[in-house]
Amino acid sequence: MVLNLSSNKRFNADILDKVMALLEEQNTPHSDTKEDDPNSNTSSDIVRSGGSNADIWGLYARWHKIKGNLIPCSEALLKQVRSLQGSGLWHDQKKFTKYAQASLQLCKVYMEISSSSGNRRELLLAEMHLKSSLKQVCVTLPFSATDFSDTEEYKALNNYLQEIKNLIGGGA
Predict the structure, then answer these.
(1) Are 29 and 100 in a shared domain?
(2) Is the Cβ–Cβ distance between 7 and 49 less than 8 Å?
(3) Are 123 and 117 in contact (CB under 8 A)?
(4) Mind listing the pLDDT tens digit for each residue in 121-155?
(5) Coil, helix or strand at residue 122
(6) What whole-number distance in Å separates Cα of residue 60 and Cα of residue 77?
(7) How far apart, in whole angstroms, are the C-alpha atoms of residue 85 and residue 102?
(8) Are residues 105 and 70 in the same domain?
(9) Domain count, the chain
(10) How far apart are CA 70 and CA 73, in angstroms?
(11) What are the distances in angstroms from CA 160 to CA 100, 121, 154, 166?
(12) pTM
């Protein structure tokens, strides 16, 4: 209702996150009809109205994941990752953590798409993204006061890259 009154400009990402968590907990298949799910377009309405920041893209991706739409989920996650990129990313632990978590989620969805379609394209996209992200940490290291290479997030990205490489190598 608040979204309707404010032309989808006024929203609270924390509240939407809690709603999304409840939907994920229910884990029941949702119908695609508006009659069955009156809130089905809430996140897409926010995105269309210009309220698209990294948090909203993440929520939008989660929504598509719940619905089983992996391609739109990966597109929203990619937009979330791109929204998180910026000059401060490689100098701020909190920003890097959010970026690494979104990147890992993106690559997991890529892997899920690849395993369901049998196509290696998404595995190669995941590999390229992870290599680029890990390389950026090493390139920025001499210019940054923060060393992300010792963080759990960096290690998780690196471990997932190895897993992706093993899948690519095993499928060749």
Answers:
(1) no
(2) yes
(3) no
(4) 999 999 999 999 999 888 876 666 678 888 999 99
(5) helix
(6) 8
(7) 11
(8) no
(9) 2
(10) 5
(11) 11, 16, 10, 10
(12) 0.76
